[in-house]
Amino acid sequence: MGGGAVYMIAGRKIGSEYLAIATLSTIGLGVYAAVKRVQSKRPNPLTDSPPINASSAEEEAFIQEFLKSAEADENKKEHH
């Protein structure tokens, strides 16, 4: 097979096809790492809930009970 461009890097001959593969792999890994970083910072709406700003402990307990009953009603609707 014919030769392509060959480059001397650190005293070794490296073919241009290997440089292209290394470049594309490096870019791909960089994009993958950036996407994973953004996804890890994004809040999960199923597990992360906003804080309850109640004026008293009684009000906070009422809100939590209401949310539990609303979730239970929603689960019943999904199963029927």
TrEMBL record:
Signal peptide: none annotated. It is found in: Mitochondrion membrane. Keywords: Membrane, Mitochondrion, Transmembrane, Transmembrane helix. InterPro entries: ATP19. The keyword Mitochondrion applies. This is 13636_t:CDS:1. One of its GO terms (biological process) is proton motive force-driven ATP synthesis. The keyword Protein biosynthesis does not apply. The chain crosses the membrane at residues 18-35. The lineage of its organism: Eukaryota, Fungi, Fungi incertae sedis, Mucoromycota, Glomeromycotina. It comes from the Eukaryota. Pfam families: ATP19 (PF11022). GO terms for cellular component: mitochondrial membrane. It comes from Cetraspora pellucida. Coiled coil: none annotated.
